[in-house]
């Protein structure tokens, strides 16, 4: 039978960094049942004073750009430097079946089993802006549980994913080189919101294309008001 916890058990479990309570609390937050929403609000109200102490990194890019690969590589580096990491991976929901695969965790083989990492896939459930409906509350729960680095991986659909910018300290845009759309990407919207860019898969035969793409983006970014950071990542 499914175990039911009371509010105090949830609060104590989250504050003691118990993954079971953290996971179930996020499930409670994401539920649409009125009784679950009431419980979730009580939990959030009790733990919110323990939140706000993390570095929040938003990560976006087109499907196939290497978001999961980047998160695992960078995430392990963050952990090796003594931090605790929570990854909130937002998965697109089907407009037909309303379901989501929620398979991002399976592509982070090392990170998903690390004791200092917590990975939580969540469905977008039709929410726009690249994040889920309750991503903000999920961040608060992870922060209260002691995770001092929070990565938010967006659904990865393109120019409209700007909502994550409101929730994060640094918004990172991953771009592919040699895809024929370097200048197509220079648009108001996601490019304007991003604090930094990384050209992924910049190795092997793709090295020269990555350098060319970097030059194109660097020149175009001069037209934006805020300074940007641009770099490379190998496969």
Note the overall shape: elongated
Percentage of residues in helical conformation: 25-40%
Global Rg: 18 Å
Instruction: Give the terminus-to-terminus CA distance.
Output: 44 Å
The order of strands across the largest sheet is: 3-2-4-1-5-6-7
* H/E element order: HHHEHEEHEHEHEHE
Contiguous low-pLDDT stretches (5 residues minimum) are 93-102, 126-130
The total count of helices amounts to 8
Give the tally of structural domains. 2
How does this structure look, described?
The chain has 235 residues and is an alpha/beta fold. The chain has 2 domains: 1-54 and 67-153, no CATH class; 169-235. It has helices at 7-15, 19-30, 34-47, 67-80, 135-144, 164-167, 190-193, 207-220, and strands at 55-61, 85-91, 117-123, 149-153, 170-176, 196-200, 229-232. Strands 3-2-4-1-5-6-7 form a 7-stranded parallel sheet, sandwiched between helices. Helix 7 (190-193) links the parallel strand 5 (170-176) and strand 6. Helix 2 (19-30) packs antiparallel against helix 5 (135-144). Mean pLDDT is 80; it is low at 93-102 and 126-130.
């Amino acid at each position: 039978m499914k175990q039911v916890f009371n509010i105090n058990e949830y609060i104590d479990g989250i504050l003691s960094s118990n993954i079971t309570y953290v996971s179930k609390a996020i499930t409670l937050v994401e539920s649409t049942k009125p009784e679950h929403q009431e419980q979730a609000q009580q939990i959030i109200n009790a733990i919110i004073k323990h939140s706000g102490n993390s570095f929040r990194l938003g990560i976006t890019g087109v499907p196939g750009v290497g978001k999961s690969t980047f998160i695992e590589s960078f995430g392990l580096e963050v952990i090796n430097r003594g931090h605790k990491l929570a990854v909130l991976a937002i998965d697109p929901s089907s407009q037909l079946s309303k379901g989501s695969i929620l398979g991002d965790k399976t592509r982070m083989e090392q990170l998903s089993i690390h004791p200092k990492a917590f990975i939580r896939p969540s469905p977008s459930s039709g929410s726009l802006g690249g994040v889920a409906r309750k991503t903000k509350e999920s961040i608060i729960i992870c922060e209260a549980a002691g995770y001092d680095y929070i990565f938010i991986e967006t659904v990865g659909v393109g120019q409209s994913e700007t909502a994550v910018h409101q929730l994060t300290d640094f918004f990172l845009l991953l771009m592919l080189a040699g895809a024929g759309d370097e200048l197509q990407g220079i648009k108001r919207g996601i490019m304007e919101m991003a604090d930094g860019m990384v050209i992924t898969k910049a190795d092997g035969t793709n090295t020269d294309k990555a350098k060319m793409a970097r030059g194109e983006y660097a020149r175009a970014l001069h037209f934006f008001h805020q300074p940007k950071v641009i770099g490379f990542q190998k496969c």
